[in-house]
Amino acid sequence: MNIRKSSYSPVKLITPFSKGLFFLVLISISNYCYSGIYKWVDEQGNTQYGQHRPGNIPAEQMDVQSYAPQDTSSYKRPGSKVDGKDDDKEQAAKDKTADSEPEKKVETRAEKKQRMAACAQARKNLTTMQSIGRIRSKDKDGNASFISQKQKEAKMQQSRDLISKHCK
After folding, report:
1. Is there a smaller number of Cβ atoms within 10 Å at the N or the C end of the chain?
2. pLDDT computed for residue 138 by the predictor
3. Taking the model in full, what pTM does it have?
């Protein structure tokens, strides 16, 4: 008598529905495990960070980058190749055209993004300084003190200068 064992392969049992359900469970578990990073200032004035929100102190949830930041610098190292071309050859070509006509620098997307971020920060700083009566600053030793009205006006003027420079 020939007895055959019936064996089931796990591949045959997995249906598209069960695969989808498995990945849905994995995604929901990973979102459940992420609690975030919180920042707060304790009673002694020290800035604290943690994964759990403190009960009696107001805390700010931090925005944590989960990816590497982009290189937005426009600096090119001497002798480096850009798009398969030698940097020295490009520089020689630029020198020839510079003699014939003045060249206007073209702003790249990254430079524009950086300029707009600086503009927004300067506007935010100016608005904050205008709305707050006294401004506290820390020295290099970490000691906090209030700045004078002249210093506040000088900082406000610096913010106005940055706005006129970056917000075109």
Report:
1. N
2. 83
3. 0.36
Residue 94: how many other CB atoms lie within 10 Å? 10
Q: For 61-95, write each residue's pLDDT tens digit.
A: 877 666 666 667 776 766 666 554 555 555 666 65
Give the DSSP letter string of 57-87: S--EE-----SPPP-------TT-EETTEEH
Half-sphere exposure of 119 (CA within 13 A, CB side): 11
User: Are residues 162 and 154 in contact, defined by beta-carbon separation less than 8 angstroms?
Assistant: no
Secondary-structure breakdown of the chain: helix, strand, coil percentages, each rounded to the nearest 5: 45, 10, 40
Q: Is 138 helix (H, G, I), strand (E, B) or coil?
A: strand
Q: Give the orientation angle of helix 149-166 with respect to helix 109-131, to 10 degrees.
A: 150
Report the C-alpha gap between 126 and 130 in whole angstroms: 6
